[in-house]
């Protein structure tokens, strides 16, 4: 989930999926994402359809969110998903 104040890379790479590029444009036009200097910032909450869609939108390139998203304890999303457990406290996503 994109949370208010979370940042995304403004520039994209040639590997960004066309659907992700279209999603970023939609989020910009709807005001969910806004341009702030050389970065993009989430102005409101946004729930993505998958961890990879979130990661690709945030980094501006093709991405495997199950590997890139990390919890506060250092585990990747795929490991957490396989274990079916949450660390104590709220999970923190770091890409």
What key phrases describe this protein's structure?
95 residues; alpha+beta; 4 helices; 12% strand
What does this protein structure show overall?
Helices cover 35% and strands 12% of the residues. The protein is built from four helices and three strands, in the order βαββααα. The model has no long low-confidence stretch (mean pLDDT 88). It has helices spanning 18-30, 51-59, 65-68, 77-83, and strands spanning 7-9, 33-36, 39-42. A three-stranded antiparallel beta sheet has the order 1-3-2. The protein is an alpha+beta fold.
Order of SSEs: EHEEHHH
What is the residue-averaged pLDDT? 88
In DSSP terms (H or I, runs of 4 or more residues), the helix count works out at 4
How much helicity do the residues have? 25-40%
Largest sheet: 3 strands, antiparallel
Please tell me how large the radius of gyration is.
Answer: 13 Å
Strand content: 5-15%
Number of strands: 3
Silhouette = globular
Question: Mind sketching the topology for me?
Answer:
Blueprint: E1 7-9, H1 18-30, E2 33-36, E3 39-42, H2 51-59, H3 65-68, H4 77-83
Antiparallel strand pairs: 1-3, 2-3
Summarize the structure.
With 95 residues, the chain is α+β, with helices and mostly antiparallel strands. The protein is 35% helix and 12% strand. The two termini are 13 Å apart.
